[in-house]
Amino acid sequence: xxxxxxxxAAWRLAPSSYAAGREVEFALPEAPASRYLxxxxxxxxxxxVWLPQGVTGKVPAILILTPYYRRFRLREGGQGDAIPNAxxxxxxxxxxxxxxxxxxxRGTGASFGTRDSFRSPREREDSAEITDWVVAQPWSDGQVGxxxxxxxxAASDFLASTGHPAVKxxxxxxxxxxxxxxxxxxxxxxxxxxAKSYDDLMVAMDHDRRDLLRNYVYYANPDLAGPxxxxxxxxxxxxxxxxxxxxGNFRQPDFMAEFRFREDPLPYDAGFSSASFSPYxxxxxxxxxxxxxxxxxxxxxxxxxxxxxxxxxxxxDNPVHLILGPWDHGARCNVSPWRRDQTxxxxxxxxxLRFFDHYLLRRDTGLDREAPVHFxxxxxxxxxxxxxxxxxxxxxxxxxxxEGALADAPGAAGQDAAQADFAWGSGDGTRYExxxxxxxxxxxxxWGQRQAGLLGWSSAPLPQDMELAGHGLADLWLExxxxxxxxxxxxxxxxxxxxxxxxTEGLLRALHRQESPAPDAYxxxxxxxxxSRADAAPLVAGEATRLRIPLLPxxxxxxxxxxIRLSLSGADADHAAxxxxxxxPRLTLLRGGERASALELPLxxxx
Length: 607
What we know:
Elements: H1 15-21, E1 33-38, E2 44-50, E3 59-66, E4 72-74, H2 87-93, E5 99-104, H3 121-135, E6 140-149, H4 151-161, E7 167-173, H5 179-184, H6 192-206, H7 210-213, E8 224-227, H8 237-246, H9 252-256, E9 291-299, H10 304-314, E10 320-328, H11 348-359, E11 373-377, E12 382-386, E13 396-401, E14 405-407, E15 414-419, H12 447-451, E16 455-458, E17 466-470, E18 473-480, E19 486-494, E20 500-509, E21 545-550, E22 554-558, E23 563-569, E24 586-591, E25 598-601, E26 603-605
Parallel strand pairs: 3-5, 3-6, 6-7, 7-9, 9-10, 10-11
Antiparallel strand pairs: 1-2, 2-5, 4-8, 11-12, 13-14, 13-25, 15-24, 16-23, 17-22, 17-26, 18-21, 18-24, 18-25, 19-20, 19-23
């Protein structure tokens, strides 16, 4: 099946239909104008300006702020895409009447300076200065938008948070809201491989190590010859000087290890914490007239979909649109097991164009007459529309019962136990590879085999098709032999023929089990946790403790005759750090009676 936006009746006017009728009035220049802009501290930032050829009036600008090269230089006689990151936006938006300004953030590409952080606050300050320069140009109509996938998407949030009056619309695509919980410490558990993989990529780029960069499929073209110098740097000497400065950039594994607790300050800088590089912390600076298009996918890393949803819930005074599709990070793949092709067919660029046309060009696109939420239901293979999140507010509880059952009622008291297997892992075709820059095309192909050895509970066969839409919740009563544990809960569909399909998962470090009200800067519809040092509490060995573990959101149709299965692991050796180190806990799940563990799902019968 396809993820095309015509599947289902979710839109009054599908993005692809809008894009098909949108005129293309201008041409894309062969190359941009490229120059340095000098920041307040003297740091020189490289920018490319792509202007529509044939335009006679002033135009709005779209900023893309990236650490992944604004543009590559090609070897003499070489061929290939010199703008693999920003190119899709440049090629789509410029001929349709937008200037696109692509920026090497400080310490990257051809820009000078060093990076002191992942999404450094200094980059946020730079973005406001760059916007000042943009709106002062003779071609500018005084309006600015911003977009990008992943890091550039979050940079869009940061730009808007400066409160710059020219910023009217942002489209953060596949972008975190909270770098701690959405990215590096989901559930308070460190993703050990992610920091290393990202560091390898950034060393390859920031140090112009082409031998290393070609290990990444996105940059495997041997004709890519490092960052492109700006126009004034004819002999490349300025680029060489900038690259020498990049040697002082922070290193991601060392840097992220400083943030064991969310919003815990650095020992050498009391004002700097994980909040400093998370958009939620500066959301108060986003003016209520700034329009937002938040996009993510059901297999978008360890929590990027949560980030898109929290952005939607938090910026409730803004015009906000939310799209959640059957995609991995960046929509590189359609992840549905029932897909027709692994390449997504949804017109994401059409959706982005319609959004900017509506809020920057002030066209009557019909976007204001669409539902604010659109999501793709897997196995139904159709788009749905909703007026709010969650789309399904009622929930169904299934209780852990004897003999590995999930039952409609709690039943008699009992327990199931297993020791955490620190060698068990979820594999390498998972939701985690793509956010580490690793190419993935097939997801959880061996899930039936991998989950077979886990502690688990299954429902009776479903009497009818049921659709899950939203966040599930594992509501568990647990005893542990150790004062801490990492808990991974997995939701699967066991089809009538025995095929087991991964649906979603949730994870939580027991140390961080305490819940608290979600703050205004970070609204959720799932249990919120501070992940702070003050709220962290070891378990008491052998003492029953209640832990509510939210599952990552999804929309999925369980077919008639299938069983719903909940599985539990105390480790994911392929992605997460051990908890506690070298001391695999014995985990006992209580069921029935007054301590009835349960699985809570937002389910509704299919029409």
